[in-house]
């Protein structure tokens, strides 16, 4: 935790400096007759953020904040596995959307999570990962008229068939 | 009298078949969301907001408010039967609810919680109906300096009363405000803060992307990491006869707590950014303080269940008051509701009462109906909710992730935002582990687009003189209170240090 605390403060400080720099593309001072410039609000807020990261670092050095006193690691074995399996699963889900469509990616993600992470039965896994995307399809495309990404062109015949049910 | 007429019109609006259906669905979903550990009203409202675009705005907000309401009832179910709060708003309910359940009186605790919630909800609804139009009338004369002063007060409450690490809280607020500034400078129209020159940032960051990232993804991963062990449920046998008997006992021993919770919860809820969690904790404390035998609290006293449960319902209604009348949310959940109102094309603030009476009074009327429905659904289906609590998190979690991704896309229809949501979610997980409060950031991204223009207009009006916030009759006192709240932690730290030095000298 202790190392993570100072590294995070450092990253946030860099982000603040970057946002301050980016804000200066517009005027950050007071323009007579016009009020504060367009960059002033984000510039000074980022400056306050930078000061806060300084205080967080100071508290880290004095060991006053709980994470700066903790000897625990930020992520133990279980935590790391959670991030890799769950976070990685989500990453895969979102990456697959543009290839096999939102509904296809959803089915793959549900299958992966229920079967491999949850170790649920084949019946539950298959019924949920096939039925839910269907329900979502009819809800979004049919009821709400929101079209979700359909992926590459090979999914077209399948969706043409589903659309023929809605319209 | 005029209020009664408007209220009855509102009740009629909420009794329209579509609204009744949405209220029923909302409170049932809310009860479930509130009961599920790791999910609270704010998660539910953030994740489900995108799907409400299907219905007209006044039905949408009635549905979301019903979820909010139901979640306040539902939190108690897991606090009592699992011993872990279903939501942060029900933390105080575990203190006495769990001991009652362990001694075989889970039914008494559940019934007391439901009745106290109902009474808390009813009292706060009446207070709301009386105060809201008055406050809205006063707020009509507010100019930019007054509105900015109120924003300052909302953020100051987080700093002064939030109880989290101060620099981390301020950083979280500023981060939300800067995120809200990304996209275009509204006054000059020039592109602003297009981070890393990625075009996706040109249209700004939608508050929903941050809210779903934080509450749908970040908090879920955090919960998965935290709830490693298996959870045991306490059985609760419910029968009609038992419910009647427990209602009598619960009310006899818990009426004082219920009254304290109802009033205190409502007024704490009104405070910008305070919300139901501090409201319920404070009510528990006060109820214990004024009890005949405070020692009974913590060992299974119905009063210790009634006070926080009445308070969290009262506070949820209370937190809607500044949201509707001033356009400033009283809790993270209402911040998301407010953001929703902007998406629906409404301008939150006092003018809503005159411009959109159907919307406002329909919502107020729905509070009364939701309250009754939540009580009935709760009492009728407690065994079902307890059974559903056994649903493994490995089934619930992927469903929430799927809803988050689909909802995030539906809101803006841009995959860039879905990626951004994942980044926010993972970032939120790490920040949360390191004690950074994230609710202030979500509130700030909603308030940013109101705070910046009001500040700029105020400074323009006063030719750059910042004392405009101190010298105007309404803005002045609000700013001073905000400044006191911001300086409160510093003052406390100095006092502790001085006391420490004195003890050392002695």
From TrEMBL, chain A:
Query: Which segments cross the bilayer?
Result: 5-21, 41-61, 82-114, 120-140
Q: What sections of the sequence does the record tag as coiled-coil?
A: none
Asked if Transmembrane is a keyword of the record, the answer is: yes
Domain DUF1468, residue spans: 8-149
Species of provenance: Sedimentitalea arenosa
Write out the entry's keywords from A to Z.
Answer: Membrane, Transmembrane, Transmembrane helix
Which classification does the entry list for the species?
Answer: Bacteria, Pseudomonadati, Pseudomonadota, Alphaproteobacteria, Rhodobacterales
Source organism, top-level taxon? Bacteria
Q: Does the keyword Nucleus apply?
A: no
Per its record, how is this protein called by name?
A: Tripartite tricarboxylate transporter TctB family protein
UniProtKB/TrEMBL annotation, chain B:
The DUF112 domain extends over: 21-443
PANTHER family tied to this protein:
BLR4373 PROTEIN (PTHR35342:SF1), TRICARBOXYLIC TRANSPORT PROTEIN (PTHR35342)
Per its record, how is this protein called by name? Tripartite tricarboxylate transporter permease
Q: Which organism is it from?
A: Sedimentitalea arenosa
Membrane-spanning residues:
12-33, 45-69, 75-95, 107-128, 134-159, 166-184, 204-222, 255-274, 326-347, 359-387, 393-411, 418-434, 474-494
Report keywords, A-Z. Answer: Membrane, Transmembrane, Transmembrane helix
The answer to whether the entry has keyword Protein biosynthesis is no
Q: Entry's InterPro entries? A: DUF112_TM
């Amino acid at each position: 935790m202790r190392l993570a605390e100072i590294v995070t403060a450092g990253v946030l400080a860099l982000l603040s400096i970057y946002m301050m720099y980016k804000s200066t593309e517009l005027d950050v001072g007071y323009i007579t007759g016009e009020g504060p410039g367009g960059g002033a609000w984000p510039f000074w807020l980022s400056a306050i953020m930078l000061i806060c990261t300084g205080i967080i670092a100071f508290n880290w050095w004095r060991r006053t904040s709980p994470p700066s006193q903790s000897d625990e690691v930020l992520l133990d074995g279980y935590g790391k596995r959670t991030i890799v399996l769950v976070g990685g699963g989500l990453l895969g889900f979102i990456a697959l959307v543009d290839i096999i469509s939102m509904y296809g990616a959803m089915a793959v993600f549900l299958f992966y999570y229920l079967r491999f992470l949850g170790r649920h039965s084949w019946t539950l896994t298959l019924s949920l990962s096939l039925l839910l995307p269907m329900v979502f399809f009819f809800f979004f495309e049919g009821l709400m008229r929101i079209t979700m990404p359909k992926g590459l062109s090979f999914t077209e015949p399948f969706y043409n068939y589903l659309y023929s049910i809605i319209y | 009298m005029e209020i009664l007429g408007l209220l009855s019109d509102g009740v009629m609006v909420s009794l329209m078949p579509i609204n009744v259906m949405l209220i029923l669905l909302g409170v049932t979903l809310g009860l479930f969301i509130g009961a599920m550990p790791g999910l609270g009203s704010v998660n539910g409202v953030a994740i489900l907001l995108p799907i409400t675009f299907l219905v007209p705005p006044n039905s949408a907000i009635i549905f979301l408010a019903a979820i909010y309401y139901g979640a306040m009832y539902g939190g108690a179910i897991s606090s009592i039967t699992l011993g872990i709060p279903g939501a942060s708003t029900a933390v105080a309910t575990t203190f006495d609810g769990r001991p009652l359940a362990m001694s075989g009186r889970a039914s008494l605790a559940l019934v007391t919680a439901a009745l106290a919630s109902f009474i808390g909800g009813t009292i706060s609804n009446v207070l709301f109906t009386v105060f809201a139009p008055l406050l809205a009338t006063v707020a009509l004369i507010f100019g930019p300096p007054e509105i900015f002063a109120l924003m300052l007060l909302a953020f100051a409450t987080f700093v002064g009363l939030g109880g989290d690490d101060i620099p981390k809280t301020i950083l979280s607020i500023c981060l939300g405000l800067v995120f809200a500034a990304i996209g275009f400078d509204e006054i000059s129209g020039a592109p602003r803060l297009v981070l890393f020159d990625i075009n996706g940032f040109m249209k700004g960051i939608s508050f929903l992307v941050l809210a779903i990232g934080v509450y749908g993804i970040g908090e879920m991963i955090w919960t998965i990491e935290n709830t490693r062990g298996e959870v045991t449920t306490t059985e609760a046998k419910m029968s009609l006869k038992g419910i009647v008997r427990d209602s009598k006992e619960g009310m006899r021993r818990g009426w004082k707590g219920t009254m304290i919770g109802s009033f205190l919860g409502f007024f704490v809820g009104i405070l910008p950014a305070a919300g139901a969690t501090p409201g319920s904790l404070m009510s528990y404390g006060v109820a214990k303080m004024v009890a005949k035998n405070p020692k009974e609290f913590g060992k299974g006293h119905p009063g210790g269940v009634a006070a926080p449960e009445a308070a969290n319902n009262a506070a949820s209604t209370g937190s809607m008051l500044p949201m509707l009348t001033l356009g400033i949310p009283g809790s993270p959940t209402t911040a998301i509701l407010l953001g929703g109102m902007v998406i629906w094309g409404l301008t939150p603030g006092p003018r809503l009462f005159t411009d959109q009476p159907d919307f406002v009074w329909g919502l107020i009327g729905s509070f009364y109906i939701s309250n009754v429905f939540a009580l009935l659904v709760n009492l009728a289906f407690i065994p079902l909710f307890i059974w559903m609590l056994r649903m493994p998190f490995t089934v619930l979690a992927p469903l929430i992730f799927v809803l988050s991704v689909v909802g995030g896309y539906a809101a803006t229809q841009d995959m860039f935002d879905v990626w951004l949501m994942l980044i926010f979610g993972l970032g939120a997980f790490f920040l949360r582990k390191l004690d950074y409060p994230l609710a202030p950031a979500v509130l700030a991204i909603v308030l940013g687009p109101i705070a910046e223009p009001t500040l700029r207009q105020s400074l323009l009006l006063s030719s750059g003189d910042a004392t405009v916030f101190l010298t105007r009759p309404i803005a002045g006192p609000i700013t001073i209170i905000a400044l006191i709240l911001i300086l409160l932690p510093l003052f406390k730290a100095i006092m502790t240090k001085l006391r420490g030095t004195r003890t050392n000298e002695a």
